[in-house]
Design brief:
Helix content: 25-40%
Number of domains: 2
Bound molecules: nicotinamide-adenine-dinucleotide
Distance between the termini: 59 Å
Largest sheet: 7 strands, mixed
Number of helices: 16
Strand content: 15-25%
Radius of gyration: 21 Å
CATH topology of the largest domain: Dihydrodipicolinate Reductase, domain 2
Length: 414
């Protein structure tokens, strides 16, 4: 098989993480990168880790002419513009096989739909990167419990949480650029995981029909004067004027179209999780069986006392979003693999090389965006959102959460 040539747009936090993941994937080279910042550093990383003779390109169009697929690892607010440029390049003759996009696909349902339409018009295969569905612990849990599921029936309750102390870049905190707060940023992961693990084994990823969403959003930490000031000083984002949710929770109810059984997925997300660092927690309960994943229960702990703390100046070498560099620290030795980045890259590359969409195409990302929008709508209206109601379905098509409009005070300070 010829080595697959992948190009990156964006070379920030997630671009670097994917580069790390790609050191563990065979048959692919990172041949080019275009980014406003960080491109040289990423190219250097690729070369020094033997994952490709990576060149820095001055435009998206030039990058597209020199690779087999492009991965969009740029911020949410730049998505439509960048994907438009990729699709224009494909229409102009760039021999692209596919395009990858990080979560969330769109900041609104309308934006997600535009992105799906753009790739259709350019006849590009797609991969929506929802890494948590590709996590090896999730795959292993489902494989291990396959016989139980077959004899006892599928899971009826899933709970999924992603929490950390807050994002690394200012634009994530700005609801008008990011698309909201933690629900937009991380609710998409947890909702997707719930839907996926609840789906009976062997059925398509959208087999279970989402019937309703009930959610709450809140600003529990970063709206308090002390933290608000810290955030303003650090990022320029003023949560007294344009607040966003730093906590969100809710329940999505799904119906099995064959048995009519209702099952529930409960999601919880926060940017105020002041513990060791990022925690992914998932569990699933079926009749007579269960599983639980907790990414902070690591096989490795290290202890660093006060005197030795200087030696651990870069706390994030232990764990993503690590908040401390001393004491008893949880260390994940291979985060790129644990969080599913290795497996999602492998799936996308193999799928594109075989001339098809990845396991999770953009049309799936659109469905996740719809559920996140319904969750914001539920929190805003303090109502359960009935997804089977044609009026709601129509409203969701053009809905922009108040928080994303910069009017979060109307929801979070009432
Ligand atoms: N799956 C996950 O767990 C996960 C984690 C972090 C981020 N993400 C997603 O990845 C995306 C990027 O996030 P990040 O944390 O890497 O952001 P970042 O701010 O760290 O990096 C963004 C990169 O894109 C570049 N960029 C910005 N605007 C651009 C433009 N118009 N054209 C070309 N390059 C541009 C920047 O220069 C930078 O290199 C976001 O959509 C985010 O939601 C996913």
């Amino acid at each position: 098989m010829q080595t697959f040539r992948l190009g990156f747009v964006g070379a920030g936090f997630i671009g670097k993480f994917h580069a790390k993941a790609l050191t563990q994937v065979r048959g692919v080279d990172v041949v080019g990168v275009h980014a406003l910042k960080g491109a040289e550093e990423l190219a250097q990383y690729a070369k020094s880790h033997n994952i490709g003779d990576c060149k820095v390109y001055p435009s998206v169009a030039e990058l597209c002419k020199n690779c087999d697929a492009v991965a969009v690892f740029a911020p949410n607010f730049a998505r439509t513009d960048i994907v438009g440029q990729i699709c224009d390049a494909a229409k102009a003759g760039a021999a692209l096989k596919g395009v990858i996009c990080e979560k969330p696909l769109g900041r609104t349902l309308a934006e997600a739909r535009t992105l799906v339409e753009l790739t259709k018009s350019a006849k590009l295969h797609t991969a929506y990167f929802e890494n948590q569905i590709h996590m090896k612990p999730i795959k292993a849990a489902l494989a291990q419990l396959n016989p139980q599921q077959k004899t006892m029936g599928p899971l009826s309750l899933a709970r999924s949480a992603e929490e950390h102390a807050g994002p690394h870049e200012g634009w994530f905190w700005d609801p008008t650029r990011q698309g909201g707060g933690v629900l937009s940023d991380m609710g998409c992961h947890s909702i997707a995981v719930c839907w996926y693990v609840l789906t009976p084994i062997g059925k398509p990823i959208t087999f279970l029909e989402p019937v309703s969403v009930n959610a709450e959003t809140a600003l529990l930490k970063w709206g308090q004067p002390k933290w608000r000031k810290q955030l303003l000083d650090k990022t320029g984002v003023d949560y007294s004027k344009t607040p966003a949710d730093d906590f969100a929770t809710g329940i999505v109810t799904f119906r099995n179209p064959e048995t009519k059984q209702l099952v529930k997925g409960q999601f919880t997300n926060s940017w105020m999780y002041d513990k060791q660092g990022l925690r992914l927690f998932m569990d699933g309960l079926g009749p007579g069986y269960a599983f639980e994943v907790n990414s902070l229960q690591t096989p490795l702990n290290v202890f660093i006392g006060d005197e030795a703390a200087e030696a651990a100046a870069d706390a994030e070498t232990a764990l993503e979003k690590s908040t401390s560099s001393r004491g008893l620290l949880a260390v994940e030795p291979n985060e790129a693999d644990l969080y599913g980045y290795v497996d999602e890259n492998e799936d996308a590359i193999k799928s594109f090389a075989a001339g098809k969409d990845a396991f999770l195409p953009w049309s799936y990302g659109l469905e996740i965006t719809k559920l996140c929008m319904a969750a914001y709508m539920s929190a805003e209206r303090r109502q359960t959102i009935d997804l089977t109601d044609p009026k709601i379905q129509k409203e969701l098509e053009t809905y922009v959460p108040l928080i994303a409009q910069g009017r979060g005070a109307e929801v979070l300070f009432r």
